[in-house]
């Protein structure tokens, strides 16, 4: 998964329980633009619907186990596999 710098910023704010409107105000973008970025994030994370909670959980998991978001297309999957291996 390769997220843009802006998508990572939005995901970080989302993980702090901010609404789309609050994220937009903080970043100087409209609520609608924020929601467009969120849809892109959900798609890249293979979430079939808008699911803020799942996106935040995945983001926190990646950060916790040291995965990298935005560096390559394998970031999420590599981090997820690493986490599975550690739990076994």
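Sequence proposed for the structure above (88 residues):
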């Amino acid at each position: 998964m390769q997220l843009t710098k802006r998508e990572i910023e939005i995901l970080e704010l989302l993980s702090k329980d901010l609404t789309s409107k609050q994220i937009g105000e903080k970043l100087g973008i409209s609520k609608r633009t924020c929601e467009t970025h969120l849809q892109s994030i959900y798609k890249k994370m293979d979430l079939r619907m808008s699911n803020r909670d799942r996106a935040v959980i995945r983001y926190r998991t990646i950060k916790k186990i040291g995965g990298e978001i935005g560096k390559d297309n394998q970031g999420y999957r590599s981090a997820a596999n690493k986490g599975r291996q550690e739990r076994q």
